[in-house]
Amino acid sequence: MKKEKPQPLLLENLVAVARASVGSPLFRNLYARVGRRKVDILKNGDLSCAFFVSAILKIFSPVRGVHATVAGTVRDLKKSGWRKARKPKPGCVIVWRPRTFMDGEAHAHIGFSISRGRAISTSYKKRTPVMHDLHYRPIETIYSHPKLAK
User: Fold this and answer.
1) Which residue range forms the structural domain that includes residue 82?
2) How far is CA 111 from the centre of its chain?
3) Which of 19, 62, 119, 128 has the most crowded CB, counting CB atoms within 10 A?
């Protein structure tokens, strides 16, 4: 009798890994060479949302690479078959509108829709992924992938 090959479930695995990441410092640092210096371009978790989202997506192959910026992640989402959606469902990628911080810089924010009304993204205050209300900040765009459909 031939054994059936297990088929990983993208949606369930993506949501499970995002949930398991809450509180983890894993996505806090990403080092790059800038001139002659090595620099933590995520500033010890201040700017880690895109790295968090793209790294988890890369594990399951629905993006081409890992990114340090929201703009780079969104470009990759579009090239990798993600499409704009009207309503957030578990597994969707959420891009929130830019927010201006005390230093005067505006930053967009990206994370995952996890369940009805809940999301996971990184917190610049806690410097780790956190679970929060989906509408804690105005949503700019919702992205879904055909492989997420049940």
Assistant:
1) 10-148
2) 4
3) 119
